[in-house]
Structure formats: C-alpha cells, structure tokens
Amino acid sequence: MVDNILKDATSQTFLGVRIAQYWSDLLLWEKFFNEELHPYTTIIELGTGNGAMSMYLNIQARSRGMVFASYDVRVSTISQVSRLPSQLGFDAIVGNVFDDKTVDFVKKLIDKHGETPFVIFGDNGNKPMEWKVYGPLLRPGDFFVVHDWNTEFKAEDIPEAGRKIEFVMEELCEETDSLTRWMRILE
C-alpha cells in the first residue's frame, strides 16, 4: 500500500495540483538543495506541465533566496498557473524551450551568474534534445536534472551534449526508484 502511494505518479497532487513526480523525487530534491547545491542562485525548468512541480521548485527557490522560472509552450498551462495565489506564483514564461530567443536568454542567465551553480531541470517533451541544446551551455559545477529517467531519457543520451558529468545521489535514486537524475557538469 505505502509503495503504491509513494510510487504512483498518475494520481499524486502537490497543493491540490496534479504532479507527475514520485514523492521520493521531492525528498531527493530536498536533499539536493540541502547537501549538493551551495551556494546557488537560479533554477530554470523546461516544461511547466500542470505547474505542481513548478510550485514546489518555486517554494524551494524563494525560501533559499534563489530565482526560479519555468518555460512552457502551452498557454493553457501558464493560464492555470497564473491563478495561483501571489505567494505561490512564479515566473511562468510562454515560450518554446528550443526557440533561439529562449536558449539565448538562458545562456545569458548562466553567464551572468559567474561561478554560482546553475540548475536546469529538463522535464519538457523531448528530454534528449533539451540536454543536447542546454547541456553545452552549462559550466563545470552546474547541474542538469532530468525527469523520466530510463523512459524518456537514458544513459545513452548523455554523450549527445559532449559533456563529462557525474551523477549525484545516484545510489539513493536507485534505492527509491526515482524518476529523476541529477547530473553535475565536470567539464
């Protein structure tokens, strides 16, 4: 019973909004923020979805003095998110994550943050392409986090960006059957 609750990404909600993450993924994000990412400034989410994970990341960001923004091409998603109370709201930007303007904007954000670790969370519809486009923009010490590990994104997709990475919390991800993987850029 407990295993079904923890690992059912089809019926879970966060603050009443459907979330496509396992509860263990949220616990691992908490561990990541507490242990792996100091100091930090910005998280960019590629793909807002229903907005629940976006709310979670935004709450994390605000409580830690970070900046958070989420991109999604679907106006309906952004409209739904914009109805959230202002204290839960976040920068939900309507835009195609593969559009040159979006990529250039994210690149400028990364460059602006100097040596402070930057996080890109790939959770849009084409994770291998997100990695291929955004992975090369990240600097050593930055993170690319991907959802739907071993379904929409696999180990064989990693060489596509031409980056050397290390997984963080890999053993915990395996133990909890997490759908998310955290990759630190090494070079």
Question: What does the model show?
Answer:
The protein is of the alpha/beta class. It has a single domain (2-185), classed as Rossmann fold (3-Layer(aba) Sandwich). It contains 7 helices and 9 strands. A 7-stranded mixed β-sheet has the order 5-4-3-6-7-9-8, with helices on both faces. The longest helix is centred in the first third of the chain and has 14 residues, at 23-36. The model has no long low-confidence stretch (mean pLDDT 85).
Topology readout:
Layout: H1 2-6, E1 13-14, E2 17-18, H2 23-36, E3 42-46, H3 52-63, E4 67-72, H4 75-82, E5 91-94, H5 100-112, E6 118-122, H6 127-134, E7 143-147, E8 165-168, H7 170-175, E9 180-185
Parallel strand pairs: 3-4, 3-6, 4-5, 6-7
Antiparallel strand pairs: 1-2, 7-9, 8-9
Shape: globular
Describe the strand arrangement of the main beta sheet, using strand numbers: 5-4-3-6-7-9-8
Q: How confident is the prediction overall: mean pLDDT?
A: 85
Which spans have pLDDT < 50 for at least 5 consecutive residues? none
Entry keywords:
187 residues, alpha/beta, 7 helices, 35% helix, 21% strand
